């Protein structure tokens, strides 16, 4: 089922119009170094600088956003423009001109809906809406953004109702695949600077937080907020839903979940992958321990070298792309176990975006958060349409090849929302986390206080 968001704002700047791309239904991610926590390619617009060509981003390594790169080839080379049918040849990131404006005859039309051509409506929006769907939603013109008519105002002009957008400090696992929407938002969508620093939800805690927003798996959110100093943290958006898998050695006699009995399995202690492993063992009637028939769970961060040498485990699990590297290193000796025996999914990690009540109470920063979330919604839609759209901004930070990245992206779901069952997930997981942390489990009511859906509501209301 395809659901289209129709524009209601009279002025929509270039960084928000991606949110008008189709949201392809409900559609994930890991937690950080022990603390972190497709549809076929759709067509793009016919002209202008592209998103994923050879030139690459020219912005600083971990400080990006603001003015788009001034490369004549655009942010990522010369593939089709997202700036509209008349996108400038000097467009910067994502078809936004290097001067910061929207192409005067390309960008977001001042009138017309957001609809593109779909299988039900091949001609798209007759009024030249946000998506030029002349040949259908996934045809040659499919997801090319723009159309005739639009605004020539620059990014600052688009923020006229409240002044320039604020710079934002972000903290998260910089090598995470799950950061794909944030990477896209920070490299051309968000109209100010997003400084990306290594860390996670802990950066929001204490008397002097070092970040305005942070990502982590729900596992690490529960860990951090289970102790003093993180009372002001709030979950505002789900950046990604991550699916986990166990990779094991066929040569160790493993082909099913039950075969893990008596074997050694590596997982990072206290991380979301450890929680996934505990659920998988329980589903298979297995227990962790050193006794006969038990699963010997050893702590570690699996990677491409995990199964090398003496003393290597028989199986392993971790977030992407580490587990994909482990699987590729095993080659034909690898077996993947990703569901319990009945084929049911036992766990999906919620890789959420967090902020604090102090940031939410600051009018300027809240306005920035609303815009950032709006851009994350848009970037998520782009990734659902084309999972390779973030290649240029992910291969460097993740340190893996595009082949590993593409294989890993199959285990990530970018829903572009705050998932409706986030409280249910927290409630079910809290007893496990409390046991790991040697504390009492909190009630559902206590956990509910940490969820704030108002930023997403404001973001969607402005699209």
CATH level-1 class of the largest domain: Alpha Beta
Total of domains: 2
* Major β-sheet strand ordering: 1-3-2-4-11-5-12
Strand content: 5-15%
- Shape, principal axes of CA atoms: globular
Distance between the termini: 20 Å
Q: Could you say what the CATH topology of the largest domain is called? A: D-Maltodextrin-Binding Protein, domain 2
Poorly predicted spans: 1-160
CATH architecture of the largest domain: 3-Layer(aba) Sandwich
How many β strands by DSSP?
12
Going by CATH, the homologous superfamily of the largest domain would be: Periplasmic binding protein-like II
* Biggest beta sheet summary: 7 strands, mixed
Proportion of helical residues = 25-40%
Spell out the helices and strands N to C: EHEHEEHEEEHEEHEEHHHHEHHH
Number of H- or I-type helical stretches: 12
**Overall mean pLDDT score?**
73
What structural category arises from helix and sheet content?
Answer: alpha/beta
